Here is the input.
Amino acid sequence: MRIAQLLSSLDAGGAQRQVLALSGGLTASGHRVWVASIRRPGVMASAFASAGLAVSAAGRSETGWDALGPMASFLRRIRPDLIHCHMFKADLIGTALGLTFGIPVVATLRNQDQFLERPHWAAVGRGLLRLHDGTVAITQAVRDHWSQHTGADPSRIVVIPIALTVGAEHSPVRRAGGLRLGVIGRLEPQKDPETALRAFAVVRARGMDATLHFYGEGRLASRLRALAARLKVEDASVFHGFVEDPCAAYRDVDVVIMPSRWEGAGNVALECAAFGLPLVAARVGGIPEMAAPDGTLWVPPEDVNALANALVRLCADVDLRRRLSLGAAGHAERFSARGMVRAHEDFYARVLDRPGAGSRSR
Here is the structure.
């Protein structure tokens, strides 16, 4: 098969890492794969190129709306059998061009997109789902979210879980005190790093010996630094910025905090289990489908006190940390990249075998 993987951006993120794993696996299986970004090249472009994948950035602006013409030329040149869209803006442009050129279009729904709560965007989402030749959701939670807000039949959305994209390195608990607490991911409102920082200030006020480490960049970075100063925990809060190899972050911490307000799946929850790290997570979206049930302490979203209480428990109880670490063992092995690639190959084949694939009468 000749497959065009179309993303909204090549910035650092779980979606980009999943598409990298999928594209590499498809190429290894003998398929021809191209990767294109609607927006100008991001930090992940080099990772795709290093994997031997042809990468194109159709847009040159931050918004990506200038990409329509270049993307049309790109698709005319490569003549794919299938367009696979990832993320909403790529879905809009990819679906429009697929209809124009008669190329079958599939899309992966990767988040519990909050804009669907607005009626006009729900109508747009409903229209896209009707125009797709096939639709994938990465978790049941994402499928149900889109179905609820667009009225789509959930049976028409195939669930293909994300894959573990880092090597498993299950390690024992490393220290009884001086815990390194980690928030790994983009510093954006969806991830709610502010709740983690406020909870950490409570942890320190209760006399716990711990430091808080942020691995990632985003719009909230400067605000978080200012907040750490106001809470008087700036000396115990470390901002590492973007880390190209996420394994380095997992090796560096003892406990992972995942306080997201909403989440499609949460690669971090799965990767945390692969490293045998205790996880403290908000019970939202697809996180419960990814996290190790016996390796996680659950808290409500946006609840500073509940998160602080869970972190204090972990700081004070090495046996609890050890039980959670052991409880995570083996969980991530069920989410293999090979299994994810094979599931997509089967899905693509079903789409292409369907009469009328790529036609306007869907």
User: Anything to note?
Assistant: The chain has a mean pLDDT of 92. The CA atoms of residues 150 and 314 lie 41 Å apart. The chain has two domains: 2-163+336-353, 179-333. The longest strand covers residues 2-7.
